[in-house]
Give the backbone structure.
Amino acid sequence: MQSCIHLFLPKVKVIYPQHSKLTDKEKTNICYLSFPDSNSGCLGDTQFCFRFRQSSGRRVSLHCLLDQFDKDLPVYLKKDPAYFYGYVYFRQVRDKTLKRGYFQKSLVLISKLPYIHFFHTVLKQIAPEYFEKSEPYLEAACNDVDRWPAPVPGKTLHLPIMGVVMKVRIPTCHDKPGTTQIVQLTQQADTNISVILPTVHEVDIFRCFCPVFLHSQMLWELVLLGEPLVVMAPSPSESSETVLALVNCISPLKYFSDFRPYFTIHDSEFKEYTTRTQAPPSVILGVTNPFFAKTLQHWPHIIRIGDLKPTGEIPKQVKVKKLKNLKTLDSKPGVYTSYKPYLNRDEEIIKQLQKERYVASLMPLQKSISPWKSPPQLRQFLPEEFMKTLEKTGPQLTSRIKGDWIGLYRHFLKSPNFDGWFKTRRKEMIQKLEALHLEALCEEDLLLWIQKHTEVETVDLVLKLKNKLLQADREHLPVKPDTMEKLRTHIDAIILALPEDLQGILLKTGMT
């Protein structure tokens, strides 16, 4: 993981690694987002998360390192090249020897990876000691991180950090939902493990949704449909946890719109997201400054929460209030919206909406794939055609949940979450077609084929087969290793059947 993270101290007092390439705009955003608003009253130690836009016009070198691991990750854990995550450990304690009367400092870890739980755990291990021992300790911690192995999906990692060994497994897209990610080894094998993390990314959704437990399905619909949503909380911790819980509640779908777990008036996108000259964008904002109660009062959906309770303790439920009651927004918890849910309240709705049978029918039949023709095209997705299938196969026929399923689907099809999911699904199906086409080629008797065709046609076939191999490697096609090896054997056999002058040329061209 040596190039995956940057450790950052606000006010740019010290940066590790020192060669980190962050623009001045990014550094400014980090500095403002690393401290709670003055009204938050965060005495003691506080952890929270923020997300900020990467400056345009450049790419970070670590993208290349992470790209190769992205293909096997669940879609909701894939990095977004346009954004960074900031993981904060903030300490504020009274200190009469200081001019302001308080010691306050933040240690911030910047990463492209959305591994919320993992990086918060890392900071818990190093931040308290750093505040006591300063820069040399931080440098030693960074040296440990620099020796970590790459975050390979499906691999269980043992990560040493300042005398502690963390055991964690990076999820894969093939994991069965609900299964334990860490494979328990024998007690003897784990004697050197100090911390075992059951997840790298998940937040405590139940705890975050406790104040709005009765309205969780309505909030799920709002997130699913990409509606503009503001979370107003008393501190960055509650703000970021609630926003992340909202984003995660539609998993395994990925939330494709923007979201900011902690957003301040100093953010470089402040004017963009608070303008009244156009409708609010599809974004979830987490804020703590009371100033936003007035600035964002024109937004259609606002959640105002109080202090989150410990896990297991269900607080008094907030009420849904009409937008006309916004005058009380800065003082009373509640969900402020005029939104009418499509479906009646039920916890099973998330599982039901994950079933999408129509899209699978867009895939051509395997028997239509010919090795001597280009792979067939996917059928076009037609929203109205899909809506007709719901009459006979829709979830309203089997689910006990009653409500306007058709209306929910119509709205969902227009949302950025559907658009993002469908683009991902379409790419997967196209890659599957390419893989099936490659497998069909491997099953052919190519040596018999070249006996019936000219040398020019044979050379053209070799070049096409080589391009197929390059494409399979470049696009990470879901092809079995023995299929790739079989195709390489075919290519070598065809080349050897050609005259020596052509053999020399073809052996130097591309890969074999």
